[in-house]
Structure formats: structure tokens, C-alpha cells
Design goal:
Blueprint: H1 3-34, E1 39-43, H2 54-62, E2 65-67, H3 70-75, H4 77-80, E3 84-85, E4 95-96, E5 99-100, H5 106-132, E6 137-141, H6 152-155, E7 163-166, H7 178-184
Parallel strand pairs: 1-6, 1-7, 2-3, 2-6
Antiparallel strand pairs: 4-5
Length: 191
Amino acid sequence: MTATSIRQSARTCLISAAAVAVLVCLLVCQSAAWGRGHFYVIGTGPAGPQTATLQALETMKQMDAIVASDQHAKLFTSYIDRKSVLFDPWSGLWDYRGKKTSELDEQEKAAFKVERFRLRDERVEQIKALLAQGKDVGLLDSGNPCLFGPSHWYVEHFDPRDVVIIRAWAATQPPWRPWAKARFHPTTPGL
């Protein structure tokens, strides 16, 4: 690499970082302008902070509250800092009273369905109450939200104007594929 190409690469990185910071700031500032908070579904990528996008990491820092599994809370602890982790969004949705769904009898399956919807509705109301106070809440979802992750189960209960999806690199779409660059993060310059 020549000195000129190194300077151009450094300049491109700085411009990209500045553009992402401005974008995140604009997204987060919308809540103040609209008088309500937003529900951010933040794609964390396939393997923690080292594979998350800069946009995802910066958005986590801006949230007033976080919804995350224990594993996500540990992986992203330096980005969610001392924010309140409201609950594990997946707890109680895949098992019932310590049993896997495949182990449930018919009566337990019926009770599980009722409990699962009750739990989800209770959590949605908790998030909506924070949004009404102008707070921004971020749900950390593995991979690419609403594509492979189960976050759509929450998203479908919010006004679309209140939801912001922060997409992530997916393990099935590595960045070295030319088409992935164009399709995957059109809002992030340089990708």
C-alpha cells in the first residue's frame, strides 16, 4: 500500500465513523422531536461485539433501557453500561415450568400457550409505558432481527412509527460478498 492509499483509507474510516455517529444521533433525537420514545430492535450479529456493526454498538449506548438475555447482557456489558436490563425477552417463551415444549402433555401445552401470550403482552405493555415517557428501549437480538430472530414476536405489537430496526451482519451474508455490501447496510457509508 502506498502512503496515499493509506491516507485515503484512514480518511474513509473517519468519514464512515462520523456518518454513523450522525445517523445514530438523528435516530435517537427523533424521540424528543416526536414526543415519544422508540423501540429499537438491535441486531447484534452472529458472535458478540466483535461482529456487531458500529451502528448497533452506538445505538446500544444511546438507549435508556435494554431488553436482553443474560448472555447478551454479558457480551455487550461495556456498551449497555449501567442501563437497566428490563427482562430476558426469551425467558418463558420456549419452555414451561422447567420443561421443554416437546415434554409437555396436552393440558400443559394449552396452559403454556396462554402463559406465553400473557407473558409477552405484559412485557410489551412495560416497553410501551417507557415509550410513552419518551424513553428509548433497545432489544438485543442475535443475527439479523426480524429475519431469523424471534424479535418479530414483539415488534408486531407496536406502531411501526415507534420501531427502529438496526440490522446486523448475518453469518449467512459475509461482508466479502459484493452483493451483501449493497443490500445489507445501505445506511452505513463504506459498507
